[in-house]
Write a structure and sequence with these properties.
The protein is an alpha+beta fold. The chain contains 29 helices and 32 strands.
Length: about 850
């Protein structure tokens, strides 16, 4: 059998944070009869479910709730529509400490209680809503508010519902133990010849007595329970094997095909054969609901809860909703302070610091290098800081006009746009990091594309044409820029080929061979040219064997990787079926607005705050294991979100996210390329709003976001690392000292689990864990002489363009004057002082959540 009903029979509730309650939102397919020692209240947020309690069956509809007593057997099943439930499970014993009779109370709940929308019900639903919001957001003091709400909820139940005092605990326990044994026996023998008489004989009781206590405790009779197990097994065999109906009938315990047909039709309203055909047909066209997804146990289902928060909030009146907002909001300046003491003796020798974060910046695509607005942003970047390489998509895409056919059908190459772009890059002292893709139309093998600019993701129709294209590209670059120069560049083969159907239309094996051909062609020109890949996402490292298989293939082919490239984002998209569905419908001509809306609705969760380090650690281990050596590691795409319209991209959070990850991963990687420099990106339609949550460090108007200034701070660090921690770094360059301090807080539990309803255009800071201000108390010694001390402050009040835009009233279609004003306001606050130091230097600076400071000490010679 698949799964075990016995595992679900007695449910042990694990409560969080030593609270007297567990609250969670979920969906149910089927939860077999079970009980637990907690009193439970189930409220239906969407759809409906069928709840069985002994002889009573309730259809729980939207906004209705039901009370389930402690140790009361019950089961939950879906109806013919989806569902979403809020479950609040209360530890009766905890309340018993204050109200001694509560643990023995058995509350009477009937269908009239379910149907009537009384004032009492409204109060109970308000308490349930407060409990789930508080336990999800965990803002300061939430434990006290949750506990208080639990006591209030218990008082409502005692006041509003009749109850009786139970005094038969020992009898109940003995009976429950017997039922557990019976269930266990049925589990083991359901597919064979389990009979009520045989079990009664084993237990030493009459068939009549066993039948009665089974029905009383489980809620359905023995025969129906046995049939439900057999039906479940038959369903699995129908869906996941190719066995005949006759074979399935006997394998699942039915005496005949006729018997299987009768009970199966009663349960599913169709025959087993029809059920299987429907399933097979739906696999080709199925649209998996973004709100419901079956989990491994088959009992509780995971859901995307975006649409449900408004339902929960509706149970709280406006005044109370505002109060909860105040509790949970992560305001710019916290009233409480945590003290961080940092001491360092400057007479101690530091270690060499390689500024790996300067190695790589990214553009959406090569063609963007022809646009004046993008060029202006690149020039501004090069004026403010140093970046060594720039990576981009689409060097071979049709808009670059590189691949052409002459009148005889032979290839001819036009390097006009490529030369203009690369000449510009080199003029601002930045080298190309060349992603070799996508496929020119003239040599494509299919019409599969991605992005609004129709990047072709197919394999070449003839690998010789691709090899010739690559050879001519490399030869042209060497002839124009010189072999010595091009040897310092990087050639990356394709983009995210493991996402078959999305960025690569072939198979895994196809890509491996494609890579081998490309690698060997480039190396045949000059062995010192740098070639690598495979440019896969972090999921190919953390969850899949894709990268291991690729590295094993490379090793088996005796190819030498100059570098491994990878992309790291925090999200995990849990439904590949939904992604494939959206991509398929886009290819059929669906509007991109449809894609953006549906992409946002796909169920996703977020990795923890150390996902970058974890991925790099695993990648280094896999590389050494499979290759026997460790090539350079380049993260050629990295961001705080993989979604191109995520509102967090514009906030101060991104600045501290960058600082935290860059400092944490010093020495772990050769580059960490932020995706991307600009919001002027046409993977989808360009965003309409000035701050639409685009990927870029600079918005579409040329306004620099907080993330840009994180790199500005990092660029001012020196070449000698003196000290670093999870929220600071101290460096030295000759007689100058540089200090960066910051207050990083990551997503709260609700957002980590995929709940994005608290993130809106106007409210963008309610999705983070609460954190106090940090008072950095810094002491340095062995500093003598006159110093110029510069303090740069970046937070929601200083240097955050989005927050300044918010203060302006979220204006759209801004005038040139308004844009100019925001550009001015987007720079961090800067204060300069002069001080004579006679050995010691100390300062105390308070940094708010999502805030950062750069302090530089420059020696002045008179």
């Amino acid at each position: 059998m698949k799964g075990s009903y016995m595992d679900l029979f007695y449910e042990i509730i694990q409560k969080d944070d030593n609270l007297p309650v567990k609250a969670f939102i979920h969906s149910v397919d089927k939860f077999e009869t079970h009980w637990h020692k907690e009193l439970e209240i189930l409220i239906c947020l969407e759809g409906s479910v069928k709840v069985n309690k002994k002889d009573d069956i309730y259809i729980l509809k939207k906004d209705q709730f039901i009370i389930i007593n402690k140790n009361e057997p019950h089961s939950i099943r879906k109806t013919n529509e989806g569902n979403a439930l809020l479950a609040v499970q209360i530890d009766s014993y905890y309340i018993n400490n204050i109200y001694p009779e509560f643990d023995s109370m058995f509350f009477k709940f009937n269908e009239l209680d379910l149907l009537e929308e009384k004032k009492e019900n409204i109060l109970i639903k308000r308490s349930l809503a407060k409990i789930i919001i508080e336990t999800s957001q965990k803002s300061p003091g939430y434990e006290l508010r949750v506990t208080s709400e639990v006591y209030l909820l218990a008082s409502y139940i005692i006041s509003f519902y009749d109850y009786k005092i139970m005094d038969n605990k020992k009898i109940m326990d003995d009976e429950r133990n017997r039922i557990k044994r019976v269930i266990s026996y049925i589990e083991m023998n359901a597919l064979k010849n389990a009979s009520l008489g045989e079990i009664a004989k084993i237990e030493g009781i009459t068939i009549h007595h066993l039948s009665r206590i089974f029905k009383d405790n489980v809620g359905i009779n023995f025969h129906d329970y046995l049939v439900s197990i057999r039906i479940s097994e038959a369903k699995d065999l129908l869906l996941y094997t190719d066995r005949s109906i006759t074979d399935i009938a006997f394998k699942s315990g039915f005496p005949s095909t006729k018997s299987l047909n009768r009970y199966f039709k009663k349960e599913f309203n169709e025959t087993p054969s029809s059920f299987r055909k429907t399933f097979e047909s739906s696999k080709k066209t199925r649209k998996t609901s973004p709100k419901f997804k079956k989990n491994k146990t088959g009992s509780y289902l995971e859901i995307d809860r975006n649409a449900l928060l408004s339902v929960i909030s509706s149970y709280i009146d406006d005044a109370e909703e505002s109060k909860i907002g105040n509790y949970s909001s992560n305001v710019a300046i916290s009233k409480k302070v945590d003290i961080k003491k940092i001491d360092f003796d400057l007479s101690e020798k530091g270690e060499k610091l390689k500024p790996y974060w300067e190695n790589l910046i990214t553009l959406p695509r090569a063609y963007d290098g022809l646009r004046s607005s993008v060029k202006e942003q690149l020039v501004s970047l090069s004026d403010d800081m140093n970046f060594n390489y720039i990576r981009f998509h689409g060097i071979f895409s049709d808009e670059m006009m590189i691949f052409n056919l002459d009148k005889y059908g032979d290839p001819e190459y036009n390097w006009t746009y490529l030369d203009e772009i690369f000449d510009f890059f080199l003029s601002i002292n930045i080298k190309p990091f060349i992603e070799l893709g996508f496929m020119p139309s003239e040599i494509k093998s299919s019409d599969d594309t991605v992005f609004s600019w129709k990047a072709n993701i197919s394999m070449p129709k003839d690998i010789r044409l691709w090899n010739d294209l690559v050879k001519n590209l490399v030869n042209h670059l060497i002839n124009r820029y010189g072999l010595k120069e091009v040897r310092t560049w990087y050639f990356e083969v394709w983009n995210e080929p493991e996402l078959e159907g999305l960025f690569w239309s072939g198979t895994r094996k196809d890509y491996f061979e494609f890579y081998r051909n490309t690698h060997m062609m480039i190396k045949s020109i000059d062995k010192k040219l740098k070639v690598g890949g495979p440019s896969v996402t972090h999921e190919a490292v953390l969850k899949d064997s894709w990268l291991k298989d690729f590295l094993g293939y490379i090793n088996g082919m005796n190819l030498k990787l100059d570098f491994i490239s990878i992309h790291i984002y925090p999200e995990v998209y849990t439904s590949m079926q939904d992604i494939e569905r959206i991509v398929t419908e886009l290819k059929k001509g669906k509007d991109e607005t449809y894609m953006l809306h549906n992409w946002q609705s796909i169920e996703k969760i977020y990795h923890g705050k150390d996902n970058v380090k974890r991925t790099l650690t695993d990648l280094n281990a896999v590389s050494e294991e499979k290759l026997g050596y460790l090539p350079e590691i380049h993260v050629t795409e990295w961001n705080a979100s993989a979604y191109v319209r995520n509102f967090i991209h514009d906030t101060s959070f991104v600045a501290t996210y960058i600082l935290y990850n860059v400092i944490q991963n010093i020495g772990e990687v050769n580059s960490l390329g932020y995706w991307t420099l600009t919001d002027l990106i046409e993977e989808n339609k360009v965003g309409i709003s000035h701050f639409h949550g685009g990927f870029g460090l600079i918005n579409k108007d040329g306004i620099k976001k907080p993330g840009y200034f994180a790199y500005y701070f990092l660029n001012k660090l020196g070449g000698e690392l003196l000290s670093k921690g999870k929220d600071y770094i101290i460096t030295k360059e000759k007689d100058e000292i540089q200090i960066i301090i910051f207050n990083f807080t990551y997503f709260n539990d609700l957002f980590l689990q995929g709940e994005t309803s608290f993130l809106t255009n106007e409210k963008r800071y309610d999705v983070y864990s609460h954190k106090n201000d940090i008072l950095f108390d810094i002491s340095l010694n062995d500093l003598k002489g006159n110093y110029k001390i510069s303090k740069y402050r970046l937070d929601r009040e200083n240097g955050s363009a989005f927050d300044e835009w918010k203060k302006m009233g979220f204006p759209e279609n801004m005038s040139r004057e308004e844009i100019k004003y925001l550009k001015y306001r987007s720079f961090p606050d800067l204060k300069v002082s002069y001080e004579y130091l006679n050995g010691d230097f100390s300062l105390k600076e308070r940094v708010s959540p999502h805030g950062a400071m750069l302090i530089t000490l420059k020696k002045i010679y008179n």
